[in-house]
Amino acid sequence: MKSGRASRGAVWVGIGDRAHALAVRGYTRFRQLNPDTPGLIVTECARARGVEYEVVVDDLAGATDAARARNAKVRLPEFAPWDQVLYLDADTLVNGDLSPCWAALDTGWELVIAPSTNQDRGAFWHVDPAEAAETMEQLHSMPLQLQGGMFLYHRTAAILDLFDAWREEWGKRMGEDQAALVRALHRCPIRTWLLGRPFNGGAVVAHRFGEILRND
Amino acid sequence: MWIQFRTSKMLYIAGKPTQFRAGDWCDVGKSVALRLIETGEATTTDITKLAVFTTSDVDRGIFFAANKDRGMSILGRILGPANWSTELPILRWLKTMYWDASTVPALEVIPTAWDLLDRWEVVAPLLSYDTLAKDIGTPEDRALTEALILDLRVPVYDTRVIFLRKCQAIEDLMAAWAGEPGDRRLAFMRALWTVKPLILSTPATWADRGAHDREKWPRK
């Protein structure tokens, strides 16, 4: 069990102008509420605007921005230098207190994440049907779908294994990342504490699904 | 009668058109079920074909936490005398299904659960996708829980069906759970927070096949 002295930081991925602008918005709000917790934005080209830390990842050139963003997400431990990391999709906005989530990591949970609101017949609705079918066949049953747009992790050996597996599973199709996360988790058991919807799509962390694609 | 669709199918359920995908389950009237099974559009669970237990298997068993007679009426045909108990200790087998048979789990997931216990220490379904710890128990239960886990806006488990591996972490978990007062679901959350076993959360339908249809669907 780690003490409360573990280093902490938050990461957004903003690939493309729209996603980057939203990530900056999320970063700015987060830093207003959490001035003592650093953050960084992973993006595809240098364009820091009011962001203290920026990491440029320019691989997968030619792929879509969405694919490049997921490629960065599944490689988070390469970029995030902290013991404890909060990941937030660019279309999220922190509005509340995340201290219970950090406390979960402090007390020994390794991954803190919310289930998706779409389960059972609604699970993997956005995932390529072939990948969804392959996932269920591989796992021999319908798993709990997790919402990968907001989560926290503690950098343990098991977590690094999970990210390795997630990267490998996502790399098979380079589509959405949620089914790949579930497959990776089944390969690499992790001490996981679940959050409710207020932490991903609710009062604490708003999640404006699809905002990156809208031109408003 | 529960059936599993083999193809996509639209049925009227409680007067509403409901689309099912291959693999979905639904509780329908017997005549509808038999018609769909006859046409090959659906199938049903033959528990004798499930690899829940083998005749020589003494490493897996069911601990009936409650409603043993109902549980035996469902799975009794495939349970040997060494495969079930109502007496402590709960963890008498290498892999245990802890079951309050007031609910009927998705039987076809039981073999999967046994396999998952090779890697996970406990496999447990969520109670629902909407109900959080803040929504259940008494004010005293909630205060006790919040003092430990700090925030009650978290999902809780359906503690009527839990799969357990016999190991020190789960011995500790069950001892901690037994020692916690009040609502058993919140007590389980406190025990989890204290012990922090490797827990795999599974869909609510694992413990209650009808759970999906009682949620607030469709969602955004």
Largest sheet of chain B: 6 strands, mixed
Low-confidence runs of at least 5 consecutive residues of chain B = none
Question: Strands across the major sheet of chain A, in which order?
Answer: 3-2-1-4-7-6-8
Per the principal axes of the C-alpha atoms, what is the gross shape of chain A? globular
CATH architecture of chain A: Alpha-Beta Complex
CATH T-level topology of chain A: Spore Coat Polysaccharide Biosynthesis Protein SpsA, Chain A
Report mean pLDDT of chain A, rounded to a whole number.
89
The class by helix and strand makeup of chain A works out as: alpha/beta
Report Rg of chain B: 19 Å
- Termini separation of chain B comes to 30 Å
Using only C-alpha atoms, the radius of gyration of chain A works out to 16 Å
How would you describe what is shown here?
- With 216 residues, chain A is of the alpha/beta class.
- Chain A has a single domain (8-207), classed as Spore Coat Polysaccharide Biosynthesis Protein SpsA, Chain A (Alpha-Beta Complex).
- Chain A has 7 helices and 9 strands.
- In chain A, the strands form 2 sheets. Chain A has a 7-stranded mixed β-sheet, with helices on both faces.
- In chain A, helix 1 (17-33) links the parallel strand 1 and strand 2 (39-43).
- In chain A, helix 5 (129-139) packs parallel to helix 7 and helix 6 (157-171) packs across helix 7.
- The longest helix of chain A is centred in the N-terminal third of the chain and has 17 residues, at 17-33.
- The N and C termini of chain A lie far apart (45 Å).
- Chain B folds into 2 domains: 2-44; 49-206, no CATH class.
- In chain B, the strands form 3 sheets. Chain B has a 6-stranded mixed β-sheet with strand order 7-6-8-10-9-11, with helices on one face. Chain B has a 3-stranded antiparallel β-sheet with strand order 4-1-5, with helices on one face.
- In chain B, strand 2 and strand 3 form a beta hairpin.
- Chains A and B meet through helix 4 and strand 8 of A and helix 3 and strand 11 of B.
